[in-house]
Amino acid sequence: MRLLRSGLSITFLLFLAITISCKKDPEPGINCGCNGAPYKHFENVDASHVGSGNYVIFETADTTSRVFAVACDADTTLAKSPKTTSRDYVLTGDLLTPCREFQTMMYQIERMSITTIRKK
């Protein structure tokens, strides 16, 4: 019985220590996403506009390396690309620090700040 009580006490203390050491961000999203710092700059890269400020940014000459990103200030006047593999826009801008609440094991939603955009 005494062994059971000491085991429960240790378990409780361990739980308490873990709970106290894990702190939450006071204001999630304050230093990430559209409010985050740039972590990657891109200059005159090909892109495809898939609508509603969503872009496919092609990092290489082929379509194997690409980033899916959402513009913080979406231009609603831009025409949607006919296919996601179309390279009909040229972008310059920055990818911004991603927010943890938008990440999953499979992907993360990138936010970007576009400084220039032009149609090819």
Automatic annotation (TrEMBL):
Superkingdom of origin organism: Bacteria
Keywords: Signal
Signal peptide limits: 1-23
The protein's name: Uncharacterized protein
Biological source species: Dyadobacter chenwenxiniae
